Hints:
Elements: H1 2-7, H2 10-16, H3 21-41, H4 44-59, H5 64-81, H6 89-99, H7 105-122, H8 130-140, H9 146-165, H10 171-181, H11 187-201, H12 212-222, H13 228-247, H14 253-263, H15 269-286, H16 294-304, H17 310-325, H18 336-346, H19 352-368, H20 370-375, H21 377-386, H22 393-406, H23 410-426, H24 428-446, H25 448-460, H26 465-481, H27 486-493, H28 499-512, H29 516-525, H30 529-538, H31 546-559, H32 565-570, H33 578-590, H34 596-606, E1 611-613, E2 618-620, H35 626-634, H36 656-676, H37 678-687
Antiparallel strand pairs: 1-2
Helix pairs in contact: 2-3, 3-5, 4-5, 4-6, 5-6, 5-7, 6-7, 7-9, 11-13, 12-13, 12-14, 14-15, 14-16, 15-17, 16-17, 16-18, 18-19, 19-22, 22-24, 23-24, 23-25, 24-25, 24-26, 25-26, 25-28, 26-29, 29-30, 29-31, 30-33, 30-36, 31-34, 33-34, 36-37
Amino acid sequence: xxxxxSVIPSSVLRNLSDKLYEKRKNAALEVxxxxxxxxxxxxxxxxxxxxxxxxxxxxxxxxANHRKGGLIGLAAATVxxxxxxxxxxxxxxxPVLNSFSDQDSRVRYYACEALYNIAKVVRGDFIxxxxxxxxxxxxxxxxxxxxxxxxAHLLDRLVKDIVTESDQFSIEEFIPLLRERMNVLNxxxxxxxxxxxxxxxxxxxxxxxxxxxxxxxxxxxxxxxxSHEIRQQADSALSxxxxxxxxxxxxxxxxxxxxxxxxxxxxxxxxxxxxxxWINEFVKLSGDQLVPYYADILGAILPCISDKEEKIRxxxxxxxxxxxxxxxxxxxxxxxxxxxxxxxxxxxxxWEATRIEALHWISTLLDRHRSEVLCFLxxxxxxxxxxLSDSSDEVVLLVLDIHACIAQDPPHFRQxxxxxxxxxxxxxxxxxxxxxxxxxxxxxxxxxxRVYRELSTILEEEADLDFACIxxxxxxxxxxxxxxxxxxxxxxKQSLANAAGKDLFVSLYASWSHSPMAIISLCLLAQMYQxxxxxxxxxVEEDINVKFLVQLDKLVRLLETPIFAHLRLQLLEPGRYVWxxxxxxxxxxxxxxxxxxxxxxxxxxxxxxxxxxNGDQLKQASSGNLYSQILHDVSQITLDGDITHDNGNLQNxxxxxxxxxxxxxxxxxxxxxxxxxxxxSQSRNNSTLLxxxxxxAEEPRQPPTSDTNGPPSRLSKKGPGQ
Length: 722
């Protein structure tokens, strides 16, 4: 201290702390001259004493003017030292950096000015203080005083120039400092950070791309800043890095993919678009490198497919297709279970497009990795069943495709049908809304006969009789009306001539017995007319309820559709098809006379000719009366229940007596159930509305007032010989 006082006159020291800037400036010039003389003589000990004096007595003084004078004095001493200043930087720089946090804005301003002048002199030698200087500048960039911000910006530009020229700058030491500050929200600090990232990335010798994962999230965070300028700067920096990634042979895609996945779910639209664009490029560029991250990437893509912004939807769809085209293998860290889990979660999405793509992924995995997918079947099966209730037809059809693929194995087929019936049982609205679509599609995918046989087997053992009745009525309506089941109907029509048809008829009979109208429909379709008549004759008062009449109305209207064209044509030979006529008249007798169905069926029966067209001859009925001819033909019926010249060679193989008894026993169970809980049964009956509208037959405009061709009340007192 004494050495310094002996070198610097007291007047200079006094002026250095003066409140007037000009006096402090002149005093600083004198300090510069003194230090220059000491440096020329090589007296570095006294130089150190001068610097120590300026630091202790001035920069750390409680008086603001003293601190200002100390800062300008340190800068002057550095200028005086010129090329020898580097050996005194350890003394000069710390007090200046300390002044950056001074409470007085003017002191902070002079600190910026002082460090600027010091940096101009020492240039690259002060790189050893870069981290401290960067930290200080980061704080000053958000300073409350405008003049301090302006001074800090000037200093910042100079430091950037020095760093870009220096070969001593350590990017490894700098990155942790940058990473710590990337999530700061202050807009001035954000501009400062983006500026440094851009500058350092422009230096060829600095590999900023290698450290991109350390600050990538921060850059994406800035894309949603309220300042347009900051968003633009961040986007520009990201675009530059993406271009570098495209041109770089070695990139750490994995760490960045994790960040992009998070940002793809950002509430900010621009951030989502940028993130999904990066993911798109990564999928194209990295290929197999991203295999371990497929599940996470898929979890980011699928929601974006339904984004409200079209640009995001387009990029997401393209990325999804690119990802699906890459055929990963489990041995390559391709996690089938993780991808299935993501797809399963997305099936709960409120957006249809996302649910559809999730199903496409499950289907793709089944196609490529069937055995692995089946290992996780228990994890996804319930969700897939729940998806059958989806509001979208396309979703339901895709789910059915997946179920059909799974059900290629017999155990899984049985499980599917059992679960399906169970879901219909606990959710009747599903049966009403989706039942026909589900059953028809499964018949196409898995075979109508296979599906119906399995359903029949399950319903035959169903303990809930009301549900069994509802389900059978639904299946029967689908069987009679769906184009997808035309081959099954064709097979049933051949039941009297084809062993396969007969076997199918028998397999359906037990479960169809839960519904009188279903069993009658089945008999009419299979041309088992005598048995149909016997079933009708066996009905008792309790069977003729509202539900029965609704079903009968549907059947009458169905008889007028092309499906039963063969039956209507058989009416041209009333002598040959006596039991058909008796069955139809039996149905007519059960209908209320004022109902539309009664009028439709009566009109049809009136068109039955009074003679038979049997090819070679016309057999004219006596006195033109059809019914005397029918009575005549009945006398020719053989013990097997058909006319001698009818094609019924397989009918003998069916024990119709046992079948009728089986039907009556099942119906008796229904009657007992109805008598025990009439209110519940009535409620269930009211819920079984039409699952599908049946095409209405055209009603006659002016029906005749009398029926001259009406049949006798009973064609035969003797019951059917079955």
